[in-house]
Amino acid sequence: LLDYEMDYGNTAKGFEAMLLEARCLFELREYTQAEVKLKSTMVLVEVLIENKIPRNPYYDQIIFGAYLTLAQVYNKASKYPMARDFIDEIFKKDPTVAKEWIAHALKVEKVEALFKLKKDTDAIKIAEEVIKADPDGPFGRMMRDKLRSIGGTIRLEPAQLIQSGESSMERGKLREALGTLRQAVENCYTEEQKTKHLPKALYLMAQS
């Protein structure tokens, strides 16, 4: 790959080779080297701007791959504040991101970072945004699984669980909905929660 990069230099093929090498380094847990290579890959954005070349799916495949892999590198290396800040920066700097699949993928990584940083409320809010935007897709499923997995250690609000359960019912995932609604019932600890949320949770459980 290094020879390939040198042969193609500052071209799209060269940047693609850098991305592939970075992914290999990531899999080998060589996170510092992967970070350097990914930052070099992202220079493609500047090259396109300088040469007034419009973005296309091929370029975006390379750029988005670099964004996602670097966010994953930071999380795997336990650099959670860097993962969060990097993702926020990408959304601000690259308006293309919000319109493409990479938006969901980066939010998944941000949720992971926020949970590790004990920012549970923020993490849950973003996870629910992904579920709503990608209800039947891979990112929505990942976020539902994440919320279920942390349910035993983080007390999710009944309203959040009911909303998630309703979403599962709408998609015909009745067993999934039943489990989520059962958790909503169990999480009604206060009298206010029991009055406000318990009847709806029990009603929906009966429907599923």
SS-derived structural category: mainly alpha
Poorly predicted segments: 1-9
- What is the rounded Rg? 21 Å
Task: Provide mean pLDDT, rounded.
Answer: 88
Please indicate the percent range of residues in DSSP E strands (runs of 2 or more): under 5%
**What count of helical segments does DSSP give?**
13
Q: Note the gap between the termini.
A: 53 Å
In helices, the fraction of residues equals over 70%
Taken in chain order, the helices and strands follow as HHHHHHHHHHHHH
Largest sheet, strands/sense/barrel = none
Let me know the number of strands.
Answer: 0
* Global shape: elongated
- Oligomeric state of the chains in view: single chain
What features would you describe in this structure?
The structure is a single chain. The chain is mainly α and 208 residues long. It has helices spanning 2-8, 12-27, 31-41, 43-50, 57-76, 80-93, 102-116, 120-133, 138-149, 158-170, 174-186, 191-196, 198-207. The radius of gyration is 21 Å and the shape is elongated.
What are the salient characteristics of this protein?
disordered N terminus; mainly alpha; single chain; 208 residues; 76% helix
Task: Give the SSE map.
Layout: H1 2-8, H2 12-27, H3 31-41, H4 43-50, H5 57-76, H6 80-93, H7 102-116, H8 120-133, H9 138-149, H10 158-170, H11 174-186, H12 191-196, H13 198-207
TL;DR of this structure?
The chain has 208 residues and is an all-alpha fold.
